[in-house]
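Exercise 3.2. Students should predict the tertiary structure of the chain below and write it as C-alpha cells, then compare their answer with the key that follows.

Predict this chain's 3D structure.
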Amino acid sequence: MNDFRGLAEVSRVKLLGAVQKRPGSRLKELADEVGLHVNTARDHLRILIEEGFVCLEPAATGTRGRPPMVYRPVDDPEANEAARERIDRAREHRQVLRRLANGDGTQPAALDELGDDAGAQFDVLYEHLDDSGMEPMVDEEEMRISLAPCPHYRMVGDEREIACAIHANLVRSLLGQVPGPLELDRLLPFTSADTCQILLRDADYPGAAIPQEPEAGSGAASEQGSEPRQGPEAGSDPDDGSQ
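Answer key:
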C-alpha cells in the first residue's frame, strides 16, 4: 500500500472527489462525471480501493437478484483491508515515529491532554501524509501540520481548489476512521510558495481551534474549513444500470 500511488494521478483524484460527492454511485455514473472511459475509470477506482480510499459494495435495492455494485468513501476501516492496515501500521509505528523526532515525537504538545484516542487519530493522519510524500512537519505546540504541496499540484485555477476540497474531505475521513476527539479545523493551501498547512481541533471544544494567521501565500486556492465544500457539477448523471 502506498498513499502516493493512490493520489498521484489527476484523474484518480477527480474520481475520488466524485465518490465523495455522490457516494453510492455506479461505475458508469462516476466515469461520466469526470469524463473518462469506463475501463479507465475502473482501473483508477481499483487503485483507490487498493490504497484504502474507496470501497466497492453491493447496493441495497430491496429486490431479488444480483444487486449493482456501488462505490463509497471509506468511513469504516472494516470495509477496506488497506484502511485497516493503515491504522494498524500507524499504531505499530507510533513509538518509532516519536523517536525519529528527536525524542519529542511527531505529535504536538496540545495533544497530551486529549488522551490516547486523539494520539491514535493523529498517527493515522501523519502516516497518510508521510506515505503520500507530503513531508509533514508537526508544530511542537499547536495542532498544526505543515506539508509540502500534495500530488495535486498539477491542478491549477479552479481545479486546484477542487483538489484541495477533496483532500480536506479525505483528512476528515481518515480522522473519522479512528474513534477520538480530533477533527479537521482548516486546510490552508499554499501558505507559502512551497507549503500547505492542516489545522486540527478538539471536536468537543471547537472554539479552541487555532486562530487564523494571514500568511504570504500564492493565493492560488482558498482555505478549506470544517464544513465540506463541493466543487462545480461536472457532466451529466445518467443512471442506465451500468456497474
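Discussion points: The longest strand covers residues 182-192. DSSP finds eight helices and six strands in the chain.
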